[in-house]
Specification:
Largest sheet of chain B: 5 strands, parallel
Number of domains of chain A: 2
Order of helices and strands of chain A: EEEEHHHHHHH
Family (chain A): Belongs to the HdrC family.
Number of strands of chain A: 4
Number of domains of chain B: 2
InterPro entries (chain A): 4Fe4S_Fe-S-bd, 4Fe4S_Fe_S_CS, HdrC_iron-sulfur_subunit, Helical_ferredxn
Strand content of chain A: 5-15%
CATH architecture of the largest domain in chain B: 3-Layer(bba) Sandwich
Pfam families (chain A): Fer4_8
Protein name (chain A): 4Fe-4S ferredoxin-type domain-containing protein
CATH topology of the largest domain in chain A: Fumarate Reductase Iron-sulfur Protein, Chain B, domain 2
Structural class of chain B: alpha/beta
Number of helices of chain A: 7
Shape of chain A: elongated
GO molecular function (chain A): iron-sulfur cluster binding; oxidoreductase activity
Strand order of the largest sheet of chain B: 5-2-1-9-20
Distance between the termini of chain A: 16 Å
Radius of gyration of chain B: 22 Å
CATH topology of the largest domain in chain B: FAD/NAD(P)-binding domain
Strand content of chain B: 25-35%
Number of strands of chain B: 20
CATH class of the largest domain in chain B: Alpha Beta
Bound molecules: flavin-adenine dinucleotide, iron/sulfur cluster
Oligomer: heterodimer
Shape of chain B: elongated
Strand order of the largest sheet of chain A: 1-4
């Protein structure tokens, strides 16, 4: 996103359409004794979601402050009440909850540095109609991501 | 109150049965004409396991109605039959009942008519994106009901499915098929997902929806499915289902992340909508009743279902609009009440009417 690396896949035409996370650029790649490092070894992962993976979600559900994440129905009331989201469009608690629930890992990686922007003011948790405690869920997501050194 | 001519009810589903029970309990003779060889309408025909929203066994709701009608001396049931023709006016219609098995025709006089011919399921073969009828393990909610009732939910190879998708609004809310909402299939699908999870606790279930329309108290099912059963919801609409030879590749978009998905499933359940069936069309023609732009029977006043376009003919249930069993039953009662009012009026001397 904002920190788009200039180096990664710089030669790709219409480079700005592709997220950093989807570009795989192995430093050293040898295939049948031929050095394929550099341009020829670059791989662009498809945008299509090919799997729903709930492993991270299960871990967050086990975190004391993330245990109501499964109740979220994506109304966005949390984001609407959030003072951080008001200033920074990349901080969206509603969205973070969804990508965690569905296990969209590349998307989560893209936003990993934004989850910590949560100021723990708790306004989202006050307005959430389902009792999800999104503020707590942000903390739980952060903790679990740290566990994976993300 | 006794009248000379009995009351005709066409259709033996929840609405028609309830009307028959109410009229006979008020001492009025009833002729009940049912096209199929059994009473009970859709819940019995498709073997619904339980009824949403309270998830009561279907028999608890339907059996008392069916038993009452079958035992009552005041109700004469014609199964495998249709009404071919009705002539005359409120108080005295001459009708012809035709038995579809032996083609025997009987003429009778009736005082009033209640039409309760219900609905049919949308035939998902019409919308090719799902490959229904071609792809194995793509089934309709009506077919899943019978599986749930038997307690055995399996794929075509006899193995239980692990990952199951429900697709909402199949045949509904689409200009290419039926533009209306069937009102109950969201709730029914969710009820079934809960029942599936009880039979197969390790399965993963995904509801693919455009909106979740669990109106009124049915909302409880929606919350319960998420909060107690861990059922997942994906907002989007499926564009294609492709059978890989082993699994079903379901293509759609998760509109909450702007992400196209292509994910493998073991089983896909289509929430097929409700539409006016051949039976309702037949009655509309035989009785010369008005139908609306969608093919449902059109009431005289848009907000009052029970009065048809003709005096002495009343409407009830899903032949007027998609609805739930609880509503169909209430409409049956409402139509019965209108009949009683009519008979009461007709029994008075002309100058007092
Ligand atoms: C898969 C599925 C599951 C559902 N589950 C639930 C649920 O859990 N809870 C709930 O509240 N609702 C449920 N519904 C809705 C429910 O089925 C309907 O609300 C209800 O059946 C409507 O009752 P009805 O009497 O109006 O029509 P029907 O049940 O359709 O009965 C109409 C009867 O009329 C007969 N008939 C038709 N044409 C003629 C004719 N020309 N002459 C003589 N007879 C005729 C038919 O054979 C039928 O017996 C479900 C619907 C679907 C699609
Ligand atoms: S307010 Fe609650 S239910 Fe709504 S999106 Fe946020 S966490 Fe989910
Ligand atoms: S009840 Fe639900 S599934 Fe059925 S048509 Fe309406 S919105 Fe779609």
């Amino acid at each position: 996103m904002s920190k788009k690396s200039k180096k990664k896949g710089a030669f790709i035409i219409e480079r700005e359409y592709i997220d950093d996370q989807r570009i795989i650029e192995p430093e050293h790649l040898k295939l049948e004794e031929v050095d394929m490092s550099g341009r020829w070894g670059v791989l662009v992962l498809p945008r299509t979601i090919e799997e729903f993976n709930h492993s991270l979600y299960e871990e967050i559900k086990n975190h004391p402050r993330g245990r109501n994440i499964h109740k979220c129905w994506q109304c966005g009331n949390c984001t609407a009440a959030c003072p951080v989201a008001e200033e920074n469009p990349l901080f969206n608690p509603r969205y973070f909850i969804h990508i965690v629930k569905m296990g969209y890992k590349l998307e989560l990686e893209k936003f990993k540095d934004y989850i910590y922007l949560c100021g723990s003011c708790g306004r989202c948790s006050e307005v959430c109609p389902k009792g999800v405690d999104p503020s707590g869920v942000m903390e739980a997501i952060g903790t679990v991501l740290r566990r994976y050194k993300l | 109150m006794r009248t000379e001519n009995p009351v005709l009810i066409i259709g033996g589903g929840p609405a028609g049965l309830r009307a028959a029970v109410d009229l006979s309990e008020m001492g009025i003779e009833v002729i009940l004409v049912e096209k199929r060889n059994e009473l009970g309408g859709a819940p019995v025909r498709w073997k619904y396991k339980t009824l949403a929203p309270m998830m009561r066994p279907t028999e608890e709701v339907m059996n008392p109605l069916i038993e009452h009608v079958e035992k009552s001396e005041l109700v004469k049931v014609y199964k495998n039959s249709i009404v071919e023709e009705a002539k005359g006016n409120a108080g005295n219609f001459v009708i012809r009942i035709k038995n579809g098995l032996d083609n025997r025709v009987e003429s009778l006089n009736v005082s009033a008519i209640i039409v309760a011919t219900g609905f049919e399921h949308f035939d998902a073969r019409i919308d090719p994106r799902y490959g229904y009828g071609k792809n194995p393990n793509v089934i309709g909610i009506h077919e899943l009901e019978a599986m749930l009732k038997s307690g055995r939910v399996v794929k075509h190879d006899g193995q239980p499915p692990e990952r199951i998708a429900f697709i909402f609004c199949v045949g509904s809310r689409d200009r290419a098929t039926n533009p209306w909402c069937c009102t109950v299939c969201c709730g029914v699908s969710i009820k079934q997902a809960i029942e599936l999870k009880e039979i197969l606790p390790d399965s993963q279930i995904y509801m693919i929806y455009m909106d979740v329309r669990t109106f009124g108290l049915w909302e409880k099912l929606y919350w319960k499915s998420m909060e107690e059963y861990g059922i997942n919801y994906i907002r989007g609409r499926v564009s294609e289902i492709y059978y890989t030879g082993e699994k079903l590749l379901v293509k759609g978009e998760d509109t909450l992340v702007r992400g196209p998905f292509e994910v493998l499933f073991d089983m896909v359940v289509l929430a097929v909508g409700m539409e006016p069936g051949q039976g309702t069309k037949q009655v509309a023609k035989a009785l010369d009743l008005a139908i609306n732009e969608f093919g449902f029977l059109e009431p005289k006043h848009p907000n009052i279902h029970h009065d048809s376009s003709k005096e002495g003919i009343f409407l009830a249930g899903a032949c007027v609009a998609p609805m739930s069993v609880e509503e169909a039953i209430a409409e049956g009662s409402a139509a019965a009440m209108q009949v009683v009012k009519l008979l009461h009026r007709l029994a008075k001397p002309i100058e007092a009417r």
